[in-house]
Amino acid sequence: MKDGRRKGEWLEWSASNSIGSLEEAVAQLPAGRFSDKWIAKLKHTGGIEWKGSRIRLRLFPEEPLQYMPEWADIEVLYEDDFCLVVNKPAGMKVHPTQEGESGTLLHAVQWHLEADGQRLRPRHIHRLDEDTSGPVLLAKCEWAQSQLDAEMREKRVERIYLAFVQGRVESSKGTVNAPIGRDRHHATRRRVSQTGDPSITHYEVVDRLRSATLVRLRLETGRTHQIRVHMSYLGHPLIGDALYGGPLRGIQRQALHGERLIFPHPFTGEGIQVEAPWPEDFAALYEQFK
Q1: For the chain, where do the domains classified as CATH 3.30.2350.10 start and end?
Q2: 3-class SS at 119?
Q3: Tens of pLDDT along 74-85?
Q4: Could you give the CA distance from residue 271 to residue 273 in angstroms, rounded to a whole number?
Q5: pTM of the predicted protein model
């Protein structure tokens, strides 16, 4: 499977032996990577071909664009035939939230793909808040999206963040297990609520600074504003996060950055780890608190 190569709409690779039937071709697919639904779909659409020991899967059909390509200065941290990870800057939405909206990460990634001659539709696997920086995982085709969505549901996509929070966090590490729901008194706020959705955040102290603490956080669930709500619930709101009581100093947004993303590759299952460098405002804030 290591010699698999994309050729246009097809993924092609050499099997371990000569293929004589559709059933033998299906048996050569990577174990656990194709559901019965997808195998049936490939069979129905003629998406499996073979000749000798060579097998082809039509995984990359040309698709109509969902968003018009727009150039933006984004950094691609990882890319292959199936997926890519982009370092989203603060102040940019992952996707439009109203009709006709432009300037989002998906618009920029569509430009990146088009400029490289890839007629594909990018699909985000998870989201970051508009004012949070860090890596975002995107799939390049419907099959890769289905595989990565399944990995998200099974909690095999690990998202690790860094945040500057107010005050001195005394415990070196801990877990916040508190359900999160909507705030009835505010359209965009969330709050800890016993009737909310189960929400779990793990944290550890990285550095105790003057009037602030740098903490590393790992999400076990992915609720809206989860880190912001949980750290405020602990009495340590994020610096710059006015919505949840954080002090407005040194940075023009909540001081939250996605440090690392770890996920199984959709085709091979190999563990992929991607790190995102600190943005300038985050690094400047660290120097200020030191």
Answers
A1: 159-258
A2: coil
A3: 999 999 999 999
A4: 7
A5: 0.91
